[in-house]
Amino acid sequence: MPELSYREAVREALSEAMRRDEDVFILGEDIAEMGGSMGVTQGMLDEFGPERVRNTPISEMAIVGVGIGAAMQGMRPVVEVMYEDFTTLAMEQIVNQAAKHRSMSGGQVKVPLTIRTQGGAGWSPGAQHAQQLEAWFVHVPGLKVVFASTPTDVRGLLLASIYDDNPVMFFEHRTLYPIKEEVPDELEPIPLGRARVHREGDDVTVVATGRLVHEALAAAVDAEEQGVSVEVVDPRTLQPLDEDTIVSSVKKTNRCVVAHEAVTKMGFGAEVAAVVQHEAFDYLDAPIERVGARFAPIPFAPVMEEWVVPHAADVLAAVLRTVGKDV
Amino acid sequence: MAKVEQRGEVSQELLREFFRELLLIRRFEEEVEERFRAGELPGFLHVAIGQEAVAVGVCRALEDDDVIASTHRAHGHTLAKGTHPNELMAELYGKVEGCSGGFGGSMHLYDLERGNLGANAVVGGGLPGIAGAALAFTFREEPRIAVAFFGDGATNIGTFHETLNLAQLWRLPALFVCEHNGWAESTPAHQHLPIEDLTHRAKAYGMRAVSVDGQDVEAVYRATLDAAEHARSGRGPVLLVCNTFRLVGHYIGDPQVYRPKDEVRRLRETEDPLTKLRERLELSDQELEELESEVAAIVEGSVEFAKAGTDPDPEDALRNVYA
Fold this sequence. Notes:
Helix content of chain A is 37%, strand content 20%. Chain A is α/β, with parallel strands linked by helices. The model of chain A has no long low-confidence stretch (mean pLDDT 97). Chain B has one domain: Thiamin diphosphate (ThDP)-binding fold, Pyr/PP domains (Rossmann fold, 3-Layer(aba) Sandwich). In chain B, helix 4 crosses helix 12. Chain B is globular and about 50 Å long. Chains A and B meet through helix 3, helix 4 and helix 5 of A and helix 5 and helix 6 of B.
């Protein structure tokens, strides 16, 4: 099995889709000669040329909108929005156009568009380059939302997203690009809407996304030393959400922690908590705990940034609270 | 025969067809006003009375497989691009038989088969998508063009500038048709435009721009043929500014308190595109009467069709959210 970084895994999914299908092309800022601000598309210009690896002006509305229009003609564009903070600039096109064309047209139109973007704290970029905004998009009927946490997942989920007939918001995390993993020889799509159980456990279910999957796995190791067995579930697709896998897990463990890097308040974790309390109310032995960022714009100074976003220790503390242990 | 080959004289026969389409849109819109006032149509509606010549002149100059994106004032464009009045009226009544299956309504009219990629209720919202359609045509080496309709108000919004910039940069086969009626809802041009000549907008992007009398259907038609040929032959997009007049309020029922009282009446006498064409047309009073009856029957038929249409099941709302 080849070892790939998360960054290489994204590139492989894009490249493979473009080799297989001439309807697939990529467009975004600095993605050609520079290979993307995160280096994801390095080398792709040489293989596919400037028509299919299209550098664009800094025009998020137009980039996303062009993707929408090309997708409506049956192409499968993959737009890169350099930072998810900049999806704010394209919000109208994403929310009013991409998400609604199918419904508004009474089912005449399809928008097979993938919008890749990335973000996340941990490197002191300040408040406008480190947000986690995935929860904004899960609230919009018509969009699918993916947040991959490992090289294997990011590769398979991106391929599935490109071939999905709906607009997909595809979130990558800035600090995950260098992580490496052995991936299957064959590049196969991973169906959207299926969670992955990363680690089985008996006492507490941690539902984690993005970087927090890795923090949760680290916390699980620490918890085990204290005699607490943790199951880690990564939904991978936030919309549609694999409620069955999450609820089944909580019915087994009777406790639930939800963990993401985005701010806790009004977050994706609140939806997971609502689903769990409704579907597994009688199984719960403790209040559902939420782990996420504090309610502040991400500050610049490293000490403040680190304090605002959650880490393994925060997940561990939440896990221990559910079993009545204090850290 | 490709329409670009039909240049030279616009025949009386073609002008007569134009007139019939203008008349159909006018009478259709008048009926819509009446049905709305009678409380039969939900939502709120913007009719294209006064701007019919832009819709007809542009759409008649396009090939059948060219595509358009329309605006909140979409009935005229939709009819001119070939959607049957029955399907349009049924949509306005919220019926399954409507051109958007009752999901869209007046401001979200779609007809994919006839190249209508959707009317947009967000000012400027449809422009980027039109550039995307044009890009797809380029990729596939198809000799098609994509056309965005929008108003002068939309030339102040970011999508307009980002899209024109990108479309010119990539020499996309697109037309940007500005229906310059001098109003952004209730705000007059002098309060929202720092320039008078909107073709200047295109200069910043090095884009070809043409200004035309939007009340003269023949002029719009000719200008569109030229622009379409330019775009189709790979020489890049064109901004076509059609100077037109909204001979009604922004929406049906708009008291137009912001507009001089006699302005609409005066403009209806001097700037009605139907009157302007009628003057040039060899059309006897009797022929006009016959045409009126024919169009009246079509419009009446569309109301009957719509009223007899099927109401969607409430839970149909969940269909078509995802493909």
